[in-house]
Amino acid sequence: MGLALLAVIWLITFFSTYFFVAKTWWLPHGASTAALFIDNQFALTYVLMGIVFVAAQGALGLFVWQYRDRAGAPKVEYSHGNTKLEVVWTVLTAVLFVGLNLMGSNVWARERFAPADPGSVPVEVTGMQFAWYFRYPGPDGKFGIAKPELEDPSAGGEAALGLDPADPASKDDVVTGIMEVPVGREVEVILRAHDVIHSFFVPAMRFKQDAVPGLAIHMHFTPTETGDFEIACAELCGLGHYKMHGMLKVVSQDEFDKWLAAREAEKQ
Ligand SMILES: [Cu+2]
After folding, report:
1. Taking ligand 1, which is a single-atom ion, which protein residues have CB atoms under 5 Å away?
2. Is 60 or 162 the better-scoring residue by pLDDT?
3. I need a surface site. Which of 5, 58, 160, 239 has the fewest CB within 10 A?
4. 184-197 in b/e burial notation, b at 16+ Cβ within 10 A?
5. Distance (Å, rounded) from C-alpha 153 to C-alpha 127?
6. Contact 107, 34 (CB under 8 A)
């Protein structure tokens, strides 16, 4: 029985470790400036935790077998633990967790607490059950006022966001259903939510942030490659959560300018 349990524990350990080592279900290719650091931090965390996991499960299997019940086995002795050992592994764990947090906090804070570059591209991203809307400020560089009482999600587009037509700054605002940005330039994301908490997740950009009703959350990222990248809602936000899918198109500056001008022209 001890041997069977050892085999089960080691097999579970082997297979669960295998899928991480073989990268069977892994992150998509990273396409932003923060991706390299985040991926390295991610890998380091997995390697360290993997070593601890394999060592602990290996020892567990071994002990299950070694201390099995058998004829002539010494009488069991129960201990109340070893204070010295407990202090050692608690301190080691604390050092590991705090250390990894401090290492990661820099890139985390850089996207959130440091303001976006003055030349960044502002895009307001609004999550509502169950779609993403993207708003660009237009040639005046200013977002018009959006009023909660004017919001009408069933109408879609500008009306969904509650743009106030009386505000001159809102005249040239462009609202789209896909997000398009130029490559190599910082994108300032202003995150809003209409109804419940959503989470704006762009795996290829290694970008994820909750959108909270009543808050305008400013963050930024810099795409480094052109292409189409998926946007998902990473917060279980209701029955239609599964279809809250969007697209991020990263294009050249030229293409971006043309696209935005065409959206602008459509408004007139
Ligand atoms: Cu959502």
Report:
1. 198, 233, 237, 244
2. 60
3. 239
4. ebbbbbbbbbbebe
5. 10
6. yes
DSSP 67-114: T---TTPPPP------HHHHHHHHHHHHHHHHHHHHHHHHHHHHHHTS
Q: Write the DSSP symbol of residue 32.
A: B
Cβ proximity of 251 and 259 under 8 Å: yes
Question: Is the pLDDT reported for residue 139 higher than 90?
Answer: no
- List, for residues 68-87, the tens digit of each pLDDT value: 888 887 788 888 889 999 99
pLDDT at 61: 93
CA of 228 to the centre of ligand 1 (A): 20
Q: Using 50, 70 and 90 to split pLDDT, how confident is the model at 162?
A: confident
